[in-house]
Amino acid sequence: MQDKYSLAKCEQYGRRLASRLCQQYFGPQPDATLDGPALLQFTPVRQLNLLVLRQLLGRWQHEAQQLRSPYFDFEAEPVRAALTQFMNVLSRHIRLDRAALEPLLAQATADTLLLAADAALAFERLLLPATGPAGPDADEVVPLAQLRDGLRYLDQDKEFYQGFVDSLPSGYAPLSRDFLTQRFALYQGKHPQSADAMPRLVAVFSTLLPLTEADLWGDGPAKPAPTPVVPTPAKLPVASPAPAALPTLAPAVPILPSPAPTPPPKPEVPDVAEPVPLHEKLKATQPATPHLAEALRHSAHSGPTPLAERAAPKVGSLREAISINQRFSFINELFSGENMEYHAAIEHLDGLPTADAAMAYVRQELAQQHDWSRKEEHVGRLLKLIERKFATA
User: Fold this and answer.
1) Of the residues 68, 195, 212, 241, which has the fewest C-beta atoms closer than 10 A?
2) Could you tell me if residue 86 is inside a domain?
3) 35 and 143: one domain?
4) Tens digit of pLDDT for each residue in 264-292?
5) Which of 184, 206, 228 is a domain's end point?
């Protein structure tokens, strides 16, 4: 990868993040599944969600290709129309359990980091056709329409890749993989990516699982440790330092096999403009909460509820206590989808010394700034978490 980032470490972080997010979601409900709209809202990182969907559609196309048979004409127009309809219906009935989702989520996380770390490698992996076991074929032709189709799964730096595709000669025959990679290198030299792409992405991922740029750096050549000068008897040799162990690279998640020359009909991509948030599906199972003004007034005058009077245990940090479902619900309902405002508010609440200070911050600043007058249910959940944080043992 370019400069200092390690692809292996991006993949290692992807596996750890996938495991953590899946545990938070599926732990309390092991038999749960995700549909298409829920998948597009599973994490606050839209690029990650889109790349999970991209892998799904790639798998579908590969599986549809297995339907080919020497006994039937799959190129006949009625057959193609029926197959297209079948794939479109199937695309609207996504169902993922943990075993199916976790590896897709791990690969999508690594690819999202790859977009910020190495644009050239990301272009080859995410926009060019997948390579076979023998490696890439430099003379393989890539239709321009296929490149444009791949852009719909990009959200991060999409304009950068869109600019490259728009710069290609549209009147030519399909372009070779070797020509495209060389052309992209020239384009990248004239249009360098923003230097803060990785820091911004790391900051977002860190809200889900702690991450720093240094965690993704590749290990350089091992330097021998200096031999300390220690007086020793003449008859004993000075032991030389042991050689540094080479870093162990985690195995990469396999790349999907390339499709056959005649691709099957492409399924429709679920509408990503207005996905259904997960919290809407959870409302029916949540108990009702009192009106916001009443809840705030009760919390301000009665103080935190003693720990013995509640089944829920005391929590040390709001950030750790808020589940992934609650986080998405708070971000969408209380902070109008603004991820960074949510994290800034929770960090400030975690830093306050008393329950009174936390309640005053909610009542005098957050509630007025974000107009929580009709958000009693979600505010009530936040207040209960604040009470648990400041509960006395």
Assistant:
1) 195
2) yes
3) yes
4) 455 454 444 444 444 344 344 444 444 44
5) 206
Contact 144, 170 (CB under 8 A): yes
Is residue 226 exposed (0-12), middle (13-18) or buried (19+ Cβ within 10 Å)?
Answer: exposed
pTM of the model: 0.57
Instruction: Supply 302's token pair.
Output: 């009665």
- Report the mean per-residue pLDDT for the chain: 76
Residue 149 has pLDDT above 70, yes or no: yes
Residue 244 lies in a domain: no
Domain assignment of residue 124, yes or no = yes
Tokens of 215: 């965690």
pLDDT at 112 over 80: yes
Name the domain boundary from 147, 178, 206: 206
Q: 236-262, pLDDT tens digit by residue?
A: 333 333 333 323 323 333 333 334 444
Q: Indicate if 76 and 181 belong to the same structural domain.
A: yes
Number of domains forming the structure of the chain: 2
Closest residue by Cα to residue 314 from 384, 260, 209, 212: 384
Q: What pLDDT, on the 0 to 100 scale, is given for residue 153?
A: 94
Q: For residue 63, give its domain range.
A: 7-206
Quote the pLDDT of residue 238. Answer: 33
Q: Is the pLDDT of residue 80 over 80?
A: yes
Which tens digit of pLDDT belongs to each residue from 343-365? Answer: 888 988 888 888 888 888 898 88
Claim to verify: residue 297 and residue 197 sit in the same structural domain: no
In a domain, 257, yes or no: no
